[in-house]
Amino acid sequence: HEFFVDMTCEGCSGAVTRVLNKLGVKFDIDLPNKKVFIESEQSVEVLIETLKKTGKTVTYIGPK
Q1: Cα–Cα distance between 42 and 14 in angstroms, integer?
Q2: CB 3.0-4.6 Å disulfide test: which of 28, 33, 43, 49 passes with 37?
Q3: For 25, which DSSP code?
Q4: What pLDDT is stored for residue 64 in this prediction?
Q5: Chain segment 7-39, per-residue pLDDT in tens
Q6: Residue 49 above 80 pLDDT?
Q7: CA dihedral sign, ordered 55, 42, 34, 14
Q8: Angle (CA) 62 55 36, round 5°
Q9: Quick one: pLDDT at residue 2?
Q10: Which of 51, 4, 56, 2 shows the shortest CA–CA distance to 32?
Q11: In whole angstroms, what is the distance from residue 35 CA to residue 17 CA?
């Protein structure tokens, strides 16, 4: 799954890393393009809610 997350710095990507590590999913962060790629069996809703815990704007782009 590909998401747009409004990250501006390493601190932002660190927050994303923390919440996703708690879910135990495989993910990749593309900070310059503000994208997060997640490999997971979780529903998109669960992934969005998890990403929103960072306080950032989150948009679901679609399957990668």
Answers
A1: 21
A2: 28
A3: -
A4: 74
A5: 999 999 999 999 999 999 999 999 999 999 999
A6: yes
A7: positive
A8: 30
A9: 97
A10: 4
A11: 12
- Name the DSSP letter for residue 6: -
Annotated domain spans of the chain: 2-62
Q: What is the dotted CATH code of the domain comprising 2-62?
A: 3.30.70.100
Measured in residues, the chain has a length of 64
pLDDT of res. 28 = 97
Helices (runs of H) and strands (runs of E) counted in the chain: 2, 4
What tokens were used for 48? 């969005």
Alpha helices in the chain (DSSP H): 10-23, 44-52
Closest CA to 4 of 27, 22, 23, 30: 30
Could you give the CA distance from residue 10 to residue 60 in angstroms, rounded to a whole number? 21
Residue type at position 14: G
